[in-house]
Amino acid sequence: MGALSNLRVLDLTQVLAGPYCTMLLADMGADVVKIERPGGDMIRSNPPFVDDPEEEAYGGYFQSVNRGKKSIELNLGDDEDREDFLSLVEEADIVVENYRAGTMEKYDLGYETLTEYNEDLIYSSIRGFGDPRTGETDRQGQPSFDLIAQALGGVMETTGQPDGPPTKTGPGVGDLFTATLNCIGILAAVNHREQTGEGQYVDTGMYDSMISFTERAIYQQSYTGEAPSRRGNSHPTLFPYDAFETADGYAVIAAFNNNHWAELCNAMERDDLAESYATTPERLANRETLHEEIGEWAGELTNDELVDILEGRVPAAKVQTTEEIFDDPHIHTRDMLVPVEQPGAGDDVEIAGTPIKMTETPPEPRGRAPLLDEHRDEVLGEEPETTADD
């Protein structure tokens, strides 16, 4: 039994932000019914595949964020399918969708309509620019993706090398951070309903979320009147807090305070630097010179040697490849790589586990992602359509 095993979620989302949000709910035990448009979520066919995309039901993208859900295929423009959906709404706790603003209203399935069928429903949307119900702007209705959100929200302007172009982060934080905040909002609404009996609308916009995500840039602009820009791997108010090239890769050193700095200088056998640049303002004013000094020392060491020297004294770590992550015993002990079946392939695959750990109701991926319309009989009492996996 998961912590949310008493909740049923109707998941009308696709691609990444919405499915990641409902995946978190599914990992915590919620009964998540993925209601897919005709043909299914558009990312079912996205790579990578284990072997043969013609044989495999879906790729790694879909598997990763749709594990543990049920699937039914409905056309909300069809009268019979619309009635099936409304019958599910009557018994649901939560509806989540990530269409453009106004899309559900075109089918007369917006929040106000659904609450006529279930007055204490929690209805949640993830949109690029939020929903007019919580603050109307001229951007609503525009399409948005992770790249758009990162560009508008200041992430790209503050990411990358100082002499390089604005750069997006590797992971899609415009989607993933928004999804996580939306999940928090949903759970807050569930708690409010437990106390009052009232459902409500939960709205999380990707642009809004990126403003929250770039909190440092916001307060820097406010306090200094200057627009922060790219600093590479360094920190605007701390030094050394940066990446350094070693003999076999890169390592990061996070000397957060004066004691860390003194320990780092001692490890480098450079107590003169500790004495000359004892305070953070002194180090920041001379960061380029000091970066060269640390860089020369680090360049003579392997990643492992550098980390071993600083262990217990100064926070440091090597910059790991994904291959190294898969070999890290910590990751396996923490159940952060989870094997799941890949329909159409001969071998299981591994996906990222859940970082949320609980002692009594531990969240976990609850099986592979569903085949399209796989659970029609279970959810609606109808036989599913024949699939390629049958």
Automatic annotation (TrEMBL):
Q: Which GO terms describe its molecular function?
A: CoA-transferase activity
Superkingdom as given in the UniProt entry: Archaea
Q: Where is the composition biased (Acidic residues)?
A: 380-390
One Pfam family of this chain: CoA_transf_3
What Gene3D superfamilies has UniProt attached to this entry?
Crotonobetainyl-coa:carnitine coa-transferase, domain 1 (3.40.50.10540), formyl-coa transferase, domain 3 (3.30.1540.10)
Keyword annotations for this protein, in alphabetical order, are: Transferase
> Which residue stretches does the UniProt record annotate as biased composition, category Basic and acidic residues?
363-379
**Annotated stretches, region: Disordered:** 344-390
Q: Which InterPro entries match?
A: CoA-transferase_III_domain, CoA-Trfase_fam_III, CoA-Trfase_III_dom3_sf, CoA-Trfase_III_dom_1_sf, Scnl_mescCoAtase
Protein name as catalogued? CoA transferase
